[in-house]
């Protein structure tokens, strides 16, 4: 069975229909790229898949969990326990060091500080950032900051990593490196990866891509 399943999903913002009847299955362990023009609904689709938004109509499953019927608090707990997130602008906390930014999700999940710090250090080292652990985001390059964001997304060993234009703010060399690193590490942990991008070079790293147009999938997205 798919790890994520949407059926008949609609999502509106006021009069604006962002998703207009989406069916999509995501397979466990795959890297899925969501492509399409600006404003087509890619971000909204990612947010529904990740349980950030509840759809107005239709159903969203994560494995056997009917996410679309969960309340805010249960969806927040599901996201914290099962998912990792990487955004276009890392959204690192500016007053925390790289190390503390990466440790934070573990601390929020209730892990002991010493264990959280040890795991955060290990991920920073894997991302080539051991020497930058004590720096704040403002002291890092864009590519370094995105690698910190990747460490933070992976530190909880998520089943699924959601990335929304993860390389959108980077030059093309940094973007290539960040994508390669993200996917290599995610594959190493067996995580499923869902990436929103309009960059075909980023999508080239995916196992499969779906194209969103006007709030609908205009490509094959459903498992047989
Ligand atoms: P994309 O990621 O493809 O650029 P989005 O999913 O961000 O598209 O947006 C799809 C449509 O929904 C757009 O018209 C956008 O303005 C609207 N939209 C998305 N998120 C919100 C929001 N939080 N509030 C209001 N409108 C939104
Ligand atoms: P994208 O790069 O996917 O186009 P946006 O910059 O459109 O992303 O959106 C970034 C965030 O703002 C998303 O969480 C999206 O849901 C939200 N958003 C997008 N459009 C609107 C809007 N018209 N009003 C309020 N929030 C929006």
Element layout with pairings:
Elements: E1 4-13, E2 16-26, E3 31-35, H1 42-49, E4 57-62, E5 65-66, H2 72-82, E6 83-87, H3 98-108, H4 113-126, H5 142-154, E7 160-164, H6 172-189, E8 192-196, H7 200-203, E9 208-213, E10 216-217
Helix pairs in contact: 3-4, 3-5, 5-6
InterPro entries: AAA+_ATPase, ABC_transporter-like_ATP-bd, ABC_transporter-like_CS, ABC_transpr_LolD-like, MacB-like_ATP-bd, P-loop_NTPase
Keywords: ATP-binding, Nucleotide-binding, Transport
Domain ABC transporter: 4-224
Written overview of the protein:
Keywords: ATP-binding, Nucleotide-binding, Transport. Residues 4-224 form the ABC transporter domain. This is ABC transporter ATP-binding protein. One of its GO terms (molecular function) is ATP binding. Pfam families: ABC_tran. By secondary structure, the protein is of the alpha/beta class. Helices cover 35% and strands 25% of the residues. It is built from seven helices and ten strands. It has helices at residues 42-49, 72-82, 98-108, 113-126, 142-154, 172-189, 200-203; strands at 4-13, 16-26, 31-35, 57-62, 65-66, 83-87, 160-164, 192-196, 208-213, 216-217. The strands form two sheets. A six-stranded mixed β-sheet has the order 6-7-8-3-9-10, with helices on both faces. A four-stranded antiparallel β-sheet has the order 2-1-4-5, with helices on one face. Strand 9 and strand 10 form a beta hairpin. Helix 3 packs across helix 4 (113-126) and helix 3 (98-108) runs parallel beside helix 5 (142-154). The N and C termini lie close together (10 Å). The model has no long low-confidence stretch (mean pLDDT 92). The site of one adenosine-5'-diphosphate (ADP) has 4 residues, from helix 1.
């Amino acid at each position: 069975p798919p790890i994520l399943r949407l059926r008949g999903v609609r999502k509106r913002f006021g009069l604006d229909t962002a998703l207009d009847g989406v069916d999509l299955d995501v397979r466990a362990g795959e890297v899925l790229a969501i492509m399409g023009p600006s404003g087509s609904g890619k971000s909204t689709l990612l947010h529904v898949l990740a349980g950030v938004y509840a759809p107005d109509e239709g159903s969203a499953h994560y494995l056997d969990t009917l996410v679309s019927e969960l309340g805010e608090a249960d969806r927040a707990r599901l996201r914290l326990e099962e998912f990792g997130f990487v955004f276009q602008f890392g959204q690192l906390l500016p007053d925390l060091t790289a190390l503390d930014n990466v440790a934070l999700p573990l601390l929020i999940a209730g892990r002991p500080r010493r264990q959280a710090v040890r795991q955060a250090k290990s991920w920073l080292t894997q991302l080539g950032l051991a020497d930058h652990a004590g720096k704040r985001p403002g002291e890092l390059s864009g590519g370094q900051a995105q690698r910190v964001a990747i460490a933070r997304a992976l530190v909880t060993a998520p089943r699924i990593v959601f990335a929304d234009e993860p390389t959108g703010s980077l030059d093309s060399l940094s973007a290539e490196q960040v994508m390669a690193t993200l996917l290599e590490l995610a594959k190493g942990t067996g995580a499923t990866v869902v990436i929103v991008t309009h960059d075909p070079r980023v999508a080239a790293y995916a196992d499969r891509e779906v194209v969103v147009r006007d709030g609908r999938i205009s490509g094959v997205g459903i498992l047989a």
